[in-house]
Amino acid sequence: VGGSISRAQRINSTTTMKISATALALASLTGLCYSFTTNTASLNTRPASSTAILSATVEEAATYADPSRYLSDHPKNNVPPHIAALVGRGLHTRPDHPIGIIRAKIQEYFASLPDEYIVYDAEDPIVTTKQCFDDLRIAPDHPGRSSSDTYYLDEETLLRTHTSAHQSEHLRSGVDCFLCAGDVYRRDEIDSSHYPAFHQLEAVKLFPKDDMAGADGLSGEEWEKSAECKVIADDLKNVLEGLMDHLFGETEKKWSEDYFPFTTPSYELEIKYEGEWLEVLGCGVVHEEVLEMADRADRRGWAFGLGLERLAMILFEIPDIRLFWTDDNRFHSQFKEGQITKFKSYSKYPPVLKDIAFWIPEGFEENDFFELGRGIAGDLVERMELIDEFTNPKKGKTSKCYRITYRSMDRSLTNEEIDALQDELRERIVDLGVEVR
Questions:
Q1: Model pTM?
Q2: Which class for 4: exposed (0-12), middle (13-18), buried (19 or more C-beta within 10 A)?
Q3: Stretch 16-33: mean pLDDT
Q4: Which helix H or strand E contains 387, and what residues bound it?
Q5: What is the pLDDT of residues 233-280, one digit of tens each?
Q6: Contact at 8 Å (CB) between 95 and 337?
Q7: Contact (CB, 8 A) for 123 and 167
Q8: Per-residue model confidence (pLDDT) at position 410
Q9: Which of 143, 149, 262, 365 is deepest in the core (most CB within 10 A)?
Q10: In sequence order, which residues have a C-beta less than 8 Å from that of residue 1 and are 6 or more positions away?
Q11: Cα-Cα-Cα-Cα dihedral of 272, 274, 276, 279, to 10°?
Q12: 3-class DSSP state for residue 142?
């Protein structure tokens, strides 16, 4: 990637761009990146800026969209073919896709701020456990590191579970302000708002040393109680409140304290939208140990992360997260670059409901069951919901009963084809150590 002009562009708030020598140098180390700045000297209109950016992104996606990169017979590998097939789709870089539209609007907002942010959006989704967990103070016994939550390629590499996996490498490279967007992967429950592949965008901002001079030598509670820490937290909240107004219009906001291992203090932001309070993101002051591990112990700053699907489902009124991945033109024809339009349902096919009950073994992981169901039926599974659970005191066993909702977004399903899928599920679920009732 080094030396490729299309991998690093500067963009101002009107998407005019010029070549950034700094961004080019960083591009040679970290892949596609471009930074925002005000270009008062340029009077260019909007010619090929989007094309230039997308040409680099498409080139990267072509590399990532190779299932053989993620599938192997390694004993630790738990990436199924249906997940490997999703990697490299690059929905967040498509200018007329709801995910890409939201990403662009967030970048548009950050382009209006006085600080210059470098944006990374085409990095390799394969990361190490050090990048994804250790560098962010995520403990070895954290449930998010288990194979029931994370897709591993081997003991030390995995499909990133969050874009924060790239945070330390960017900090270590010397960047002070950046955005990072990309597809992330987690084994999860199955319903209309959860999908094993989704998209995140995060940002980090470090403050000048001189601005933090009064807190030199402070750590722990002393640092958190300092005036300098409050300056960072106030700036973070101000930036994010402005972002919410940019996306949703002026709206009521509510802050609450939260916990993340990589920030302290940490916060959660809620907004009131159409009469309801909605959780939109988590954020905080970057933990001292995270900065130290990134060789930036002499700096202080903030970080936040948000889910692009979450925002897109709200703003475009998209009822099912699976729709983002459809190839149906009836979906894609409704959206245009730079515009937020309400989704119009083109059909609502009837569901087919099937129940399955089984005795569970000790250590049963629900996500393993969900992953098996999605692996068999793919996106025909709309929901897998626990509807009954009881423990037999004589047998000392616990039974769970799940209702599976099958529904296609494109056609009507037949009982015969769903019966075949349900039979396969009943046959293969014994591999999880359960006893089908």
A1: 0.85
A2: middle
A3: 32
A4: strand 381-392
A5: 999 999 999 999 999 999 999 999 999 999 999 999 999 999 999 999
A6: yes
A7: no
A8: 87
A9: 262
A10: 7, 27, 28, 31, 32
A11: -50
A12: coil
